[in-house]
Design goal:
Elements lengths: L1 H31 L1 H9 L15 E4 L5 E10 L1 E8 L7 H4 L1 E4 L5 E4 L1 H5 L1 H4 L8 H14 L5 E5 L3 H18 L3 E7 L6 E7 L19 H4 L9 H11 L7 E4 L2 E4 L2 E4 L7 E4 L1 H5 L3 H11 L1 H11 L26 H7 L9 H12 L3 E2 L5 E6 L4 E3 L6 E2 L3 H18 L13 E10 L6 E14 L6 E8 L7 H19 L7
Parallel strand pairs: 1-6
Antiparallel strand pairs: 1-2, 2-3, 4-5, 6-14, 7-8, 7-19, 9-12, 10-11, 13-16, 14-15, 17-18, 18-19
């Protein structure tokens, strides 16, 4: 008798569990997803002008973890006629992308996250049997979710807005051909903000005359970045044992390598000086010294195999390309020397950020990304995995270069006037010549200005990368990007209430 009672209890427990699952699923389908299924049902009887009846939502995530709608559906004229709507207008336009018609009269994601995650965001227009949805949902939930759903991004809307405002102000002051920036958590690769200027309003994208504005140069264009590459050269030299922080060299102002002349920005000699001055004074001859001392095979190994300068980052944006590093695969030493200070090799901004972030996170290569979770139509939320950070530098190396870059920020940049008293910041500027595609060589009057930094220096919460193509009115990046970088760091410190570290 006791045996039968036990079986009855087990059977009763199973029935209760199944009932709870069904009740939960009913609640999800009828309450949480009720509007969506109502639209699908209406679609069987009402002819609409817009075939886009249903599509997943894209969310920003604020600093407190709240989800803020970035892309959704908006009713037009009737409850069954919907179009894609972006509450932020131009906010993160190149990152979000938009939805537009294909040749087959269907609407698909174009550009940005709308395109990259189109398969997840797309939903069928037909209304399937309720019980198929009900029990099918239980099955797919048990197996880990289904294809369609909503995406939750790492983009923090207030930080994104501040970065875009920074670029607008920069444009007004320096009139570059193009400007952009990235704010990233260097430990995880989460991109908190990414922006490009000029930009456009996602809700009226079809009013743009130049389709190139839709593309994202942060992942689709490569640039010679200039002196912000010097910290990576320094790190490779120290990590490999070719130099130490205290190594000295005789700076002659100019030197000749393979019949090519390499000079400091001001052509002046400094005499015998330590490695710190290579970064503090941004000396090309010093970077060349490190490259030559390392040797070609060692430098190639660090730049290509450690920093992955010739590989795509895997960021979740469409159209990503990899860097151009042919000089590091040739026999001439001059290519290595020029690459040591960021000329002759070209990388995407996101590729540059990934490489430089190894200095901010203790020596690890991470995968930059903009989406952290997918909420499937079953109600299951899956946190995305972007792989474990890969060690590429000794922790002591990253600490040493961080100390050197903190000295740059405290003493060298603007003669120390932008030093933040209670927060340590590590930083480096870059002023690169722009290649002339018509006649070869470089323009004599066009430059790319870049700025990279992270803070707090020894436990970095954020890394910031800023760049501008052909700004007018000032020759060096320290002049054009110094104040905006300082203001952006102050905003992040205040907004996130980052405690002082000194």
């Amino acid at each position: 008798m006791q045996r039968y009672i036990g079986r009855i209890r087990v059977l009763t427990g199973v029935c209760v569990l199944v009932s709870l699952i069904i009740i939960g699923r009913l609640y999800y389908l009828q309450v949480m997803r009720g509007d969506s299924y109502a639209r699908r049902a209406d679609a069987q009887f009402v002819s609409t002008q817009d075939p886009l009846l249903d599509r997943g939502t894209i969310y920003f995530t604020d600093k407190d973890g709240n989800q803020i709608t970035a892309a959704t559906l908006n009713s037009v004229a009737s409850s069954t006629d919907h179009q894609r709507y972006y509450p932020g207008g131009s906010l993160a336009a190149q990152e979000l992308g938009f939805v537009a018609y294909n040749n087959d009269n269907t609407q698909k994601g174009r550009y940005g996250l709308e395109k990259y995650y189109d398969q997840v965001l797309s939903r069928t227009d037909s209304y399937s049997n309720f019980f198929v949805e009900l029990f099918g949902g239980i099955k797919t939930a048990a197996l880990g979710g289904e294809a369609s759903g909503d995406i939750v991004t790492t983009i923090e809307p207030s930080v994104q807005s501040e970065l875009e405002r920074t670029l607008v102000d920069y444009d007004a002051s320096w009139h570059p051909d193009l400007a952009g920036g990235i704010v990233m958590d260097p430990k995880t690769g989460e991109i908190v903000a990414m922006a490009v200027s000029p930009t456009f309003d996602l809700n009226s994208f079809n009013t743009q005359s130049d389709p190139l504005i839709y593309a994202n140069p942060m992942v689709q264009n490569v640039y010679e970045m200039g002196s912000i590459i010097k910290p990576l050269t320094m790190a490779a030299g120290i990590d490999s044992g070719a130099v130490t922080e205290n190594t000295t060299y005789n700076d002659t102002g100019c030197l000749t390598v393979d019949t090519k002349k390499i000079c400091n920005y001001d052509f002046k000699a400094r005499g015998v000086i330590p490695m710190q001055q290579v970064l503090s004074q941004s000396l090309n001859v010093g970077a060349s010294f490190i490259a030559t001392t390392m040797g070609q095979s060692t430098m190639r190994d660090y730049f290509l195999n450690h920093y992955k300068m010739n590989e795509e980052t895997g960021v979740d944006l469409p159209g990503e390309i990899h860097g151009l590093v042919a000089p590091l695969q040739a026999a001439q030493q001059v290519g290595y020397d020029t690459a040591s200070f960021g000329q002759g090799i070209a990388m995407t901004p996101v590729e540059t950020m990934r490489a430089l972030a190894v200095l901010a996170n203790g020596g690890y290569l991470v995968t930059p990304h903009l989406v952290k979770a997918i909420t499937y139509d079953t109600g299951v939320t899956r946190d995305l995995s972007w792989g474990d950070p890969v060690p590429v530098l000794k922790p002591d190396t990253a600490t040493t270069v961080t100390r050197m870059l903190t000295t740059v920020a405290d003493v060298a940049l603007a003669n120390g006037k932008d030093k933040i008293e209670h927060h340590s910041v590590a930083a480096k500027t870059g002023t690169a010549q722009i290649a002339n595609p018509a006649g070869g060589g470089y323009y004599t009057d066009r430059y790319l200005h870049s700025f990279f930094g992270y803070f707090p220096s020894y436990d970095a919460r954020f890394a910031v990368f800023l760049f501008a193509v052909n700004p007018k009115g000032a020759p060096y990046a320290s002049e054009t990007w110094g104040p905006p970088f300082h203001a952006l760091v102050q905003f992040l410190i205040n907004y996130y209430n980052i405690p002082p570290d000194r």
